[in-house]
Specification:
385 residues; DNA polymerase, domain 1; two-stranded antiparallel sheet; elongated; hpI Integrase, Chain A; alpha+beta; 41% helix; 3 domains; five-stranded antiparallel β-sheet
Length: 385
C-alpha cells in the first residue's frame, strides 16, 4: 500500500503496474477506481468497503473493463450508468456513437438547466420568454425537479393540476382558474416535447387527456360594455385619463400597447401599433406578430390623439398627471378600480374595452360631434338576448 500525499489517497495493488488503480481516499472506507480513458482521468466509487475480498473483486472487474476497452467494445455509459449525462455523452462521442439516454435517466431539473441554455436563451426578448422563466422557476421546478421524464405521467400531471392554488391574497388556497392552469402547463408541454425530440423518445403523451382534469371555468357575464354602462363609467374616470380610455375603446388597444405607444407611431392617417411595455419592460416585438397593425385615424380618434399630443414633450404619448410614463398596473389599481366603485360597474377590467371595441364598432360612426367624442349610439338592448 502506497501513500500519495498530493492526492490524499491510498494506492493499492499496482506493484505489478496493472492498468488502472484501486484507491481509498483519506477519511473514507470505500474503494475507488482510478484510470484514464481517451486521455481523460476517470475516478469512480465502487460503493464497496475496503476489505481484501472486495479489493480482489474490484481488480477483476477493472481488468474486464480494460479487456473490453482494448477490444474496442467498451461502452462507457453501460459500464458506468451512474455517471453524469454530460460525461456519458462525452465518451459516447469519442467511442463513435450518439448517446441517447432513456427517459428514466434524465431528471427534469437537469434537463431544464440545459434547456435554458440551448432553447430558452434563443427566444426573442419579451413577455413569452419572461413568462416561461417565471412559470418554470415558480411552479414547474418545485414540483417536478426530482422526477425523471419516465415518472412524468398523465396521473402525475393531474396531481400537479390539483396542487395549483393561489399562494397569497384573498383567494389563497383556492384553485387557480382554468386559463391560468393552462398557461402554466404550456411551458411544461414545451419542455416535454423538446426532450422527446432531442432524445428521440417515443412516449405516451401525458397531456392527451387533460381537458376533463382542468378546473371548470366559472360562468361569466358578458365582458363588453353596454353603451349606457360605458357612458356612466367614463364620466367617473379621472378626467386626465378619459382620453386614454376613449382611445382604448376606439382602437381596441390594450394597456401594454398604450404604455408603449410613441409619438413617432402616430402617422398622418394611421397609428402604427408596434411597441409594448409589460411589467416595466419595453419591447419592439409584441407577443404575437398579428398585434403589429395599422389603425386608421378617424375624426374621433384624432380628437383624443390631439389631447394626448398637446400634453406631451417626450416620445411616449401617454403619461400620468405627474409626467411619468403610463403604468398599466397602476392605471388599473388607482384609476380603473376607483371609477368602477364610483359607477357601481365593478365586473369590468381594462381588457373589456377591447371586447367592447370588437363587438360594438358601429358605435363609433362619425356623423356628428358628441360628448364624449367617441360615440354615435345605436339602439342597444338593455340586457343580453
Amino acid at each position: 500500500m502506497k501513500q500519495l500525499p498530493h492526492l490524499d489517497m491510498l494506492l493499492f495493488d499496482n506493484e505489478e503496474k496493472k492498468q488502472g488503480s484501486i484507491i481509498r481516499k483519506a477519511g473514507s472506507r470505500k474503494l475507488y477506481i482510478l484510470f484514464y480513458y481517451f486521455n481523460k482521468r476517470v475516478e469512480k466509487t465502487t460503493g464497496l468497503n475496503d476489505t481484501p475480498k472486495n479489493r480482489e473483486k474490484v481488480r477483476l472487474w477493472l481488468d474486464r473493463i480494460f479487456e473490453r476497452r482494448d477490444a474496442g467494445k467498451l461502452i462507457f455509459a453501460e459500464a458506468f450508468p451512474g455517471s453524469s449525462e454530460e460525461e456519458k455523452a462525452y465518451f459516447a462521442k469519442l467511442e463513435g456513437w450518439q448517446y441517447a439516454p432513456e427517459p428514466r435517466d434524465i431528471l427534469f431539473s437537469s434537463y431544464v438547466q440545459e434547456w435554458f441554455q440551448t432553447v430558452w436563451s434563443y427566444y426573442p426578448e419579451g413577455t413569452k420568454k419572461d413568462d416561461y422563466k417565471l412559470i418554470i422557476n415558480s411552479w414547474l421546478a418545485p414540483h417536478f425537479k426530482e422526477m425523471t421524464f419516465f415518472q412524468i405521467s398523465g396521473v402525475e400531471i393531474q396531481k400537479f393540476i390539483a396542487s395549483l392554488k393561489w399562494r397569497k391574497g384573498p383567494k389563497q388556497g383556492q384553485l387557480l382558474s382554468k386559463a391560468r392552469a393552462k398557461n402554466i402547463l404550456i411551458p411544461l408541454r414545451t419542455i416535454w416535447n423538446d426532450a422527446c425530440d432531442q432524445y428521440r423518445w417515443t412516449l405516451h403523451n401525458p397531456f392527451s387527456n387533460l381537458r376533463k382534469h382542468l378546473p371548470k371555468a366559472p360562468a361569466k357575464r358578458r365582458e363588453g360594455f353596454r353603451f349606457d354602462e360605458w357612458m356612466e363609467f367614463l364620466n367617473r374616470i379621472d378626467p386626465w385619463y378619459q382620453p386614454v380610455a376613449e382611445l382604448m375603446i376606439l382602437t381596441g388597444m390594450i394597456n401594454s400597447e398604450m404604455a408603449g405607444l410613441r409619438v413617432s407611431d402616430i402617422r398622418p392617417d394611421y397609428i402604427l401599433v408596434q411597441h409594448t411595455i409589460v411589467r416595466g419592460k419595453g419591447s419592439d416585438t409584441p407577443k404575437t406578430l398579428y398585434r403589429i397593425r395599422k389603425i386608421p385615424i378617424t375624426l374621433a380618434i384624432r380628437k383624443q390623439l390631439d389631447i394626448l399630443l398637446a400634453r406631451n414633450s417626450d416620445d411616449k404619448l401617454v403619461t400620468t398627471k405627474s409626467g411619468t410614463y403610463f403604468n398599466p398596473a397602476n392605471f388599473r389599481k388607482d384609476i380603473w378600480e376607483k371609477a368602477g366603485k364610483a359607477s357601481g360597474i365593478t365586473d369590468k377590467v381594462p381588457y373589456s374595452l377591447r371586447h367592447s371595441f370588437a363587438a360594438c364598432r358601429r358605435w363609433f360612426r362619425e356623423a356628428r360631434p358628441r360628448t364624449p367624442a367617441c360615440a354615435e349610439p345605436l339602439p342597444i338592448r338593455a340586457s343580453p338576448p
